Each structure stands twice: as C-alpha cells, then as structure tokens.
C-alpha cells in the first residue's frame, strides 16, 4: 500500500518517476494499492469555481457544493492522470474511490474543542472519518492482476458523501488489507528529530515511543502521517514507513532492498 501526495504529485517529472518505481515493484511480483489525496488540486478547483475555503481552527469546512468540485478534482483530474500514467507502463490500473463497491463506509466528522470548560462539537460539513472497510473489491482486483488507485471520498449508510483525510483513509485501508508494506510518501527523508537538520532522520520508532513525540518532534503535517502509520499497524498492517516521495527510487528500495530508507514504525 502506497499513500501518495505532496510535491511528488505536483511535478510531472517526479510523477513519472514514481510510476516507474511502482512498475518495478509490480514486476517483482508485489501486489500494490495506491491511495492518493490532492490538496493543491482541490484548492485550484475551488478557486476556479470561486468557492471560498472556510477553515475552523485549521480544519477546512466542506459544503455539499464544494464537495462536488472536490470529487471532480480528485476523481477526474488526479485519479484519471495516475491511472493513465500507470497504464502507459503496461500495468492494469483502475481508478476508484471509497464509494465503489461500498469499499469504505464513512461517518460524519466533528471537530471537538474545549469552550468554557465544556466540550463543543464544531460542524465541518461534508468531512468524514472511516467507519468501516470492506476489502472484497480490492481483493478481487488484486487477484486478477489489477492495480487499484483509490481516492479518499466515501459515503455513509444514508448515501451522503464525505471527503476523508487521505492519510487516515490510507492507514485504514492498509490495516484492513493486512499490508506487508505500508509506505507513506512525504517531502522529506523521514521523521526528522530536528526540522532544520535534514540529516537528523529517526530511522526506527516503536509505537510506544510515539505519544511522547507529538507536539515536539511530530508536528504539523507529520501528525496525520504518523497517526496513519499507527492506525495501519494496530489494525493489521505488518510494517509502516515514511519515505521521501521526491526521491521516487525510495519506493522500490524501501521494499525490495536491504537499504535503510526513511523512518520505520514498528509494533
């Protein structure tokens, strides 16, 4: 399972290289699921249709109107482009979202905050969490030699659609599939002990060590990535690793060589 995003998705050259390394892994017999988000593409689409983004304590609120265009960006532009590039290499990629085959069941997400000593729920609109995963469609496709490319839109029991954080979406899928390798692509070489020192990569972390690092070493965009790895491992994935997607060769090397790549999170 590969969670793909960041600068490696924005650069056409890097995207081509990511695809080539996925092809290399597939040629070695690995069955691969690719999960992606697409924040910059969503932002561009919303600006194009003149929908202003509203944020509640840093969390984007998503209206039903905005979600239509978010789905266009994720499924139409990002997913379609990746499927096209993968198929050009001879792979059999197939584009999906969590809605297909009821693969992922969503639930509405609220942002919780303390106010005057009480917990208050803030409505984020069509933003969701993963409630349940059914891997039967993915299992069938993988068995038949397809490479599923999945984006993070899903419906709840009533058929209402939600946008789900791509890291958390991928972590849930990796756990449900019992992924042998779960790779989270980011823009640095792994989790850095010192954000200003690229050489300070922490090579291995136990799940028990994570709690003490949140807010100090684990900050900002790294928080959902580490939470995603923890979720995947606790739900059945066998290994999880944060690697640099701007160095696409790391995808192949992390899985198929003995090289020490990125930050490995262990049970």
What attributes does this structure have?
267 residues; 37% helix; alpha/beta; 9 helices; globular; 8-stranded mixed sheet
Written description of the protein model:
With 267 residues, the protein is of the alpha/beta class. It has one domain (2-266): 3-Layer(aba) Sandwich (Carbamate kinase). It contains nine helices and 14 strands. The strands form three sheets. The protein has an eight-stranded mixed β-sheet, with helices on both faces. The chain has a four-stranded mixed β-sheet with strand order 6-7-10-9, with helices on one face. Strand 3 (54-56) and strand 4 (59-61) form a beta hairpin. The longest helix is centred in the first third of the chain and has 25 residues, at 64-88. The chain is globular.
Summarize the structure.
This protein has 267 residues and is of the alpha/beta class. The chain has helices at residues 7-10, 12-27, 39-48, 64-88, 136-143, 166-177, 207-210, 222-234, 249-256; strands spanning 2-4, 34-36, 54-56, 59-61, 93-97, 104-115, 118-133, 147-151, 153-155, 161-164, 182-186, 204-206, 240-244, 263-266.
**Rg (C-alpha, Å):** 18 Å
Number of helices: 9
**What is the CATH C level class, in words?**
Alpha Beta
Count of domain modules: 1
Major beta sheet, strand line-up: 5-8-2-1-11-13-14-12
CATH topology: Carbamate kinase
- Main sheet? 8 strands, mixed
Task: Give the SSE layout.
Elements: E1 2-4, H1 7-10, H2 12-27, E2 34-36, H3 39-48, E3 54-56, E4 59-61, H4 64-88, E5 93-97, E6 104-115, E7 118-133, H5 136-143, E8 147-151, E9 153-155, E10 161-164, H6 166-177, E11 182-186, E12 204-206, H7 207-210, H8 222-234, E13 240-244, H9 249-256, E14 263-266
Parallel strand pairs: 1-2, 1-11, 2-8, 5-8, 7-10, 11-13, 12-14
Antiparallel strand pairs: 3-4, 6-7, 9-10, 13-14
């Amino acid at each position: 399972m590969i969670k793909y995003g960041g600068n490696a998705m924005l650069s056409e050259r890097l995207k081509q290289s990511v695809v080539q390394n996925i092809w290399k892994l597939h040629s070695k017999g690995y069955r691969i699921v690719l999960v992606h988000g697409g924040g910059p593409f969503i932002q561009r689409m919303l600006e194009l249709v003149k929908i202003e983004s509203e944020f509640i304590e840093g969390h984007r609120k998503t209206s039903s109107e905005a979600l239509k265009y978010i789905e266009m960006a994720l499924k139409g532009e990002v997913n379609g482009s990746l499927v096209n590039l993968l198929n050009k290499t001879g792979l059999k990629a197939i584009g999906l979202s969590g809605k297909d085959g009821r693969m992922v069941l969503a639930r509405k997400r609220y942002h919780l905050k303390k106010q005057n000593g009480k917990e208050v729920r803030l409505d984020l609109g069509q933003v969701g969490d993963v409630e349940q995963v059914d891997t039967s469609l993915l299992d069938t496709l993988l068995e038949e030699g397809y490479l599923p490319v999945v984006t993070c839109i899903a419906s709840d029991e009533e058929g209402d659609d939600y946008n789900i954080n791509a890291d958390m979406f991928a972590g849930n899928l990796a756990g449900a599939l019992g992924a042998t390798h779960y790779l989270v692509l980011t823009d640095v070489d792994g989790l850095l002990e010192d954000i200003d020192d690229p050489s300070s990569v922490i090579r291995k972390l136990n799940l028990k060590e994570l709690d003490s690092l949140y807010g100090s070493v684990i900050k900002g965009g790294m928080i959902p990535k580490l939470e995603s790895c923890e979720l995947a491992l606790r739900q059945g994935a066998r290994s999880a690793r944060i690697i640099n997607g701007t160095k696409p060769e790391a995808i192949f090397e992390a899985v198929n060589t003995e090289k020490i790549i990125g930050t490995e999170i262990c049970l």
